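Researcher: Structure prediction, please.
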Amino acid sequence: MTFLLETLRLGLSNLMLHKLRSLLTALGIIFGVAAVITMVSIGEGNKQKALADIRELGATNIIVRSIKPPASNSAAQGNERMSQYGLLRRDLRRIQQTVRPVEKIVPLKQVGNQVYNGLHTAPGAVFGTTPDLLAVASLVIERGRYLSDADMQRLDNVAVIGAEMAERLFPLSDPLAGRIMVDDQAYQVIGVLRRIGLAGGSGSALVGRDLNFDIHIPLPAAISRFGDVRAARQTGAFEASKVEISELIIQTPSEDYVVDVADQIDRLIETEHAEQEDVTTIVPLELLRQAERTQAMFNALMIAIASISLLVGGIGIMNIMLASVTERTREIGIRRALGATRRHIVAQFLVETTVLSGIGGLIGVAVGLSGAGALAVMHRFFEALEKPQVTTWSIVVSFLVATAVGIIFGLYPAVQASRQDPIVALRHD
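Model: Predicted structure follows.
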């Protein structure tokens, strides 16, 4: 124990004799550790945001959506065109009867073309749906209430609107006291959804729209008021499309069943829509796992890049310590003459390099945490910048690697020092 303490004291004393040189030697270690922590925190922040966006869709959910194929079934006459594609009600019945295990199946039917309220208009998407959508899609009511079974039975003209729609259509008034117009149909607003984080994120790219602009009305009312045909008149042409069901959200009991249920749905859809290619399936769980794998590869790449600084720092330590061996040749000779063994000399130099890299690692951790903290502050002012998430493993691993670098790159100079001939070393000027 006394030997270790004495060796440590000598090592620290030699480092303190050359403070500036020691600091410059440790710069590579400091920047390497700081770079690892900062880069991993940035990557982790982006990963958590992307995963949160995908989880908004539901990790146990499967989304089956109607899409307009490049060449849909259409009948054209003059400047008028009618196209028919997408999910059919018989597809819904077959899924309900054959696919297992399934907790809930929620249909959505997009209707209407224009949404307005007096002088205010907004590019909203109106969907007829059922009360189960609230739980299946993890939506939260900010004010008012959601659709009820009574609304479905009575075919009430009521609507629940997204947060962005509420701001656009009712900038100066209470949405719950107003009405909105969907084409020529009036709907009483009964609820406002809480803003969700899909806008502009990964989830928004997956669903193809900003869910904060969605409007939900009872599905029976949507079918009764609007039917299956949506017409849009453009310059010099009239185009209509017939879609029975725009989207299905299928909830499974747990994540363990998602892939199997998705395979069952794909096989069922292929029998009816193989040639049309007018239905697509989105599995958020698979996208979630893919995002996790992609982020793991990104973290590995960032660590590899940052590790170059650690490698450079290790080379710097070896270079300085080799110069130190030459500089302290006479000291080594005196110690050997007084009884120090080769093991003692190796231990002294290894202690110096280990302490140097260890202190550099600690300073690097502090710098890295400060950098991540500065980015977190910047996140408050720049929404495009995701909030970094510092991970414990990045701190521990980078510090241990920095210390290991000191030992590995300090071993060769230490061995070289121990091999000095005592007599020759004593004669060295």
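Model: The CA atoms of residues 104 and 232 lie 33 Å apart.
Researcher: Thanks, that helps.
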